[in-house]
TrEMBL record:
This is SDR family oxidoreductase. SUPFAM superfamilies: NAD(P)-binding Rossmann-fold domains (SSF51735). InterPro entries: NAD(P)-bd_dom_sf, PRISE-like_Rossmann-fold. Signal peptide: none annotated. CDD domains: 5beta-POR_like_SDR_a. Residues 66-353 form the PRISE-like Rossmann-fold domain.
């Protein structure tokens, strides 16, 4: 049976990694975005998931066997996140229903499934770590749950299989992405190197000292492909992390060494990147001009608010991968090497000097 993919959010961190993997595997790939990027081997589709009429028109001749949903739209409140993001998934599945070709839908969410939404991030009674898939939902409103419910309802009526993928903080490249710790830290380290500022860990003592993990976008792409090809993975939700654990007290020095700077000693004071980088737009534009960089707009590269949310958590966050391991997914990625690979890619693409 021939496979073909529609990747929603194809220009984002996860979407672009998934597109590259599927093209490499020989799949026909279409990539949907409001403003599609030029991606080798990907047929671009320009559409707005919040506009059902134009979405249906854009997808009228698209007949994918596999759908990868790798995008979301950040709103001002969780109630709006739920309303908008659930509608986006519903509109998408409604537009694809007439073709009747879907066999598998993969939805990317994340560990806010266990931690709660940004409005209540890490608050209240939380599951014990490591997080396990059987721990289920928190008793709070969460747009991830609303997205899942749209997929579950459509699967029940339309007969396709599904998988839900819950990464931790994702390492990968995308310009204009709302949640991008790897590039944010690369930009911050570059600014520290260029100005002589101390390279200070911005987060909490808990995150500095506790064990944690992360997710390489390339590994996440491989996990989604694996789920589509593994019958036992159908209609299951999975955590997806690299397979190693680390402490930021170790990783911070590793990142500093890559950029040729010293990591400042951590004194336990939380110094959010959002405050540290608040006035750096003009400085970054100057750095970009001096080094001939491709993106002079700081806000299109860095998302300090998201990095602060992750690095400021007052709790340990470690993820269990046993469910995937038992079913045969054994891919591993060292997290420090994932950061270094990203930094090399950013340099090659002239996004950092």
């Amino acid at each position: 049976m021939t496979n073909s993919a529609l990747i929603v959010g194809a220009s984002g961190i996860v979407g672009s990694a998934t597109a590259a993997l599927l093209v490499e595997q020989g799949w026909p790939v279409a990539g949907l975005a409001r403003t599609p990027a030029d991606q080798p081997g990907v047929t671009p589709i320009a559409a707005d998931l919040q506009d059902p009429a134009t979405l249906a028109t854009a997808l009228a001749d698209v007949r994918p066997s596999h759908l990868f949903i790798t995008t979301w739209s950040r709103q001002a409140s969780e109630a709006e996140n739920i309303r908008v993001n659930a509608a986006m998934v519903r509109n998408l599945l409604d537009a694809l229903r007439p073709a009747g070709t879907l066999r598998h839908v993969a939805l990317v969410t994340g560990l806010k499934h266990y931690l709660g939404p940004f409005e209540a991030y890490g608050q209240g009674v939380l599951p014990q770590t490591p997080f396990r898939e059987e721990q289920g939902r928190l008793d709070v409103e969460n747009f991830y749950y609303a997205q899942e419910d749209e997929v579950f309802a459509a699967a029940a009526s339309d007969g396709f299989a599904w998988s839900v993928h819950r990464p931790h903080t994702i390492i990968g490249q995308a310009v204009g992405n709302a949640m991008n710790m790897g590039t944010t830290l690369a930009v911050y380290a570059t600014i520290c190197r260029e100005t002589g500022r101390p390279f200070r860990f911005p987060g909490s003592a808990m995150q500095w000292n506790a064990l944690t993990d992360m997710t390489d976008a390339r590994l996440l792409a491989r996990h989604m492909l694996w789920a589509t090809q593994t019958p036992a993975a159908a209609n299951e939700a999975f955590n997806v992390v690299n397979g190693d654990v680390f402490r930021w007290s170790w990783m911070w020095s590793r990142i500093a060494d890559w950029f040729g700077i010293e990591a400042a000693p951590f004194d336990g004071v939380v110094r959010p990147l959002e405050a540290q980088m608040a006035d750096d737009a003009a400085l970054w534009a100057d750095i970009a001009a001096r080094h001939g960089l491709a993106e002079p707009a700081l806000q299109r590269l860095a998302s300090p608010w998201h990095s602060d949310a992750d690095l400021g958590r007052p709790i340990e966050v470690v993820t269990d991968m046993s469910k995937s391991r038992r079913l045969g997914f054994t891919t591993y990625q060292a997290t420090d090497e994932a950061f270094f690979a990203l930094f090399e890619q950013l340099r090659a693409n002239r996004l950092i000097p």
